[in-house]
Each structure stands twice: as structure tokens, then as C-alpha cells.
Design goal:
By secondary structure, this protein is mostly helical. The chain is built from two helices and no strands. It has helices at residues 12-39, 44-77. α1 (12-39) runs antiparallel to α2.
Length: 78
């Protein structure tokens, strides 16, 4: 790999923004919606909370895979 550029799945700026959103904003929004869902009856708030939680998990997996690939490339190519 010497002489080759490191290839990341996500650009640095996108990675940093997604990491901030997924680690801070999404859990807080999901928590608040969960509290509101407990107060209001009906299935819609619970569905929205479940979808946000699932999207947060998916984005976390994508970020972790990108980070692991980047670190692997760094260790192999230096």
C-alpha cells in the first residue's frame, strides 16, 4: 500500500458531522420523543421513536465500519 492514498468510505467532514449527530443529537431526540410518547396515547409516537432508534443504530454501524477501515489502512500503509 505504500505510495497509495488512504481511501475512506466517508470524507472527514461528513464523518465528524455524522459522529456528532449520532452520538449526541439522535439519542437526545429519541429520548425526548420516548417521553412524549409515554404521555400521549397512540402508536405514532412509539413508531417514530423506534424508527429513530433504528436509524441511529444503522448510522453508528456505518460510522464504526468507516473508522475501522480507515485505521486498518493506516496500520497497513503507515
Amino acid at each position: 500500500m505504500k505510495g497509495e492514498k488512504l481511501k475512506m468510505k466517508l470524507p472527514d467532514k461528513v464523518y465528524d458531522i455524522l459522529k456528532w449527530v449520532m452520538l449526541l443529537a439522535t439519542p437526545v431526540c429519541t429520548f425526548i420523543l420516548g417521553i412524549l410518547a409515554a404521555v400521549q396515547t397512540g402508536e405514532i409516537p412509539a413508531i417514530i421513536t423506534a424508527v429513530l432508534g433504528g436509524l441511529g443504530t444503522l448510522a453508528g454501524v456505518v460510522i464504526k465500519i468507516s473508522d475501522a477501515e480507515y485505521k486498518k489502512q493506516l496500520s497497513e500503509g503507515g
